[in-house]
Amino acid sequence: MREFVHESPPLRVVLRAGASVTAVPGEAERLGLRRLLVVSGPRGAHTARAVADSLGDACAGLHTEARMHVPVEVAERAVDVARAAGADGCVAVGGGSAIGLGKAIALRTGLPLIAVPSTYSGSEMTPVWGLTEHGAKRTGRDPSVLPRSVVYDPELTLSLPLSLTVTSGINAVAHAAEALYAPDTTPLVSLTAAEGARAMTRALPDLAADPRDVDARGRALYGAWLCGTALGATTMGLHHKLCHVLGGTFGLPHAQTHTVVLPYALAHNAPAAPEALAALGAALDADDAPYALWELSGRLGAPRSLAELGLKETDLAVAAAQAAGQAYPNPREVTEEGVLAVLRAAYAGDRPSPT
Ligand code: NAD
């Protein structure tokens, strides 16, 4: 018998082509919200304006200053804008950075959040917030930052460049993979994670063949939803910690870093998590899940090595010490030598093998 504690957060999800403009007003109404501040990054401003327009009189303003990793000053300015506008809720339109800003507003003000994701990062499904101050990113869990409603619109992701489509998709698969061996996983989370990984890895080759395939875009968002759900329900291990260090300390790009590191982190953990790796392999229809992910992302044109992402070889030991110097659950004991071996392999980008 597998013992567990499972909690399902109260969160409504809509997935429909065109939903960013057709469903958001209804979601706001269901929540009783009449003055919503719409937030996005500068590059998502056009889409955010369409969402704002769809809200009509229920839009209290549009703020398009979200930035990667939510700098504290950016969050403070957005909170001021929300207060000055008399907002009673917030709609975040965009990738993990825009949703991160919406979460920061929710954290400071308690305003309810509606998320309209345009990447596969999965942030919309988690109660985890992040804020960056003096170059250091702090994260925490708080139920108030979990969106009340998430609106997935495949049409919104048609503009996602293929390179980011692939790396953001593998970022989602990373959530599923680590959820499968997380100490707080449950039978329902395992099923969710496996199905999320399956849906995403099936959708990505279809999107590489035709990035404007709305059906495949919808299947990728469905996968992102499930992988994000698994992320929100569990505690992540070595792979996520390592990517956090590489992004936070060395400024490497989020989704690309996840894509490069995942096969090597999984190959390292595989001997200590045979069931999880078998479940992931079954989802990917492969005997060797780390190799299958390495092969898939490389075939679809994603970067394969940390060297390609601009990391210096001399940074590896610093990153290993940082990632090994924190406490977090991982199926295999985390040692500095072990993490350095993973990093060396990811730096070179060769076919993953156990380290
Ligand atoms: P992002 O939001 O920074 O977006 C990456 C780039 O893609 C940006 O330039 C953006 O303008 C562009 N973009 C986004 N959607 C687009 C679209 N549909 N078409 C064209 N361009 C588009 O990147 P991300 O990978 O979505 O999110 C990364 C951030 O989210 C990181 O800060 C990460 O820490 C955070 N995150 C948080 C959680 C959580 O649970 N709190 C989970 C995952 C990621």
UniProtKB/TrEMBL annotation:
What the entry lists under Pfam families is as follows: ADH_Fe_C, Fe-ADH
Q: Which PANTHER family match?
A: ALCOHOL DEHYDROGENASE, ALCOHOL DEHYDROGENASE 4
Q: Which family does it belong to?
A: Belongs to the iron-containing alcohol dehydrogenase family.
Q: Which residues form the Fe-containing alcohol dehydrogenase-like C-terminal domain?
A: 165-347
Instruction: Please identify the protein, giving its name as recorded.
Output: Maleylacetate reductase
Q: NAD: present as a keyword of the record?
A: yes
- Highest lineage ranks of the organism? Bacteria, Bacillati, Actinomycetota, Actinomycetes, Kitasatosporales
Q: Which residues form the Alcohol dehydrogenase iron-type/glycerol dehydrogenase GldA domain?
A: 20-154
Q: Which GO terms describe its molecular function?
A: maleylacetate reductase activity
EC annotation from Swiss-Prot or TrEMBL: 1.3.1.32
Taxonomic superkingdom: Bacteria
**Which Gene3D superfamilies did the record assign?**
3.40.50.1970, Dehydroquinate synthase-like - alpha domain
Q: Which UniProt keywords apply?
A: NAD, Oxidoreductase
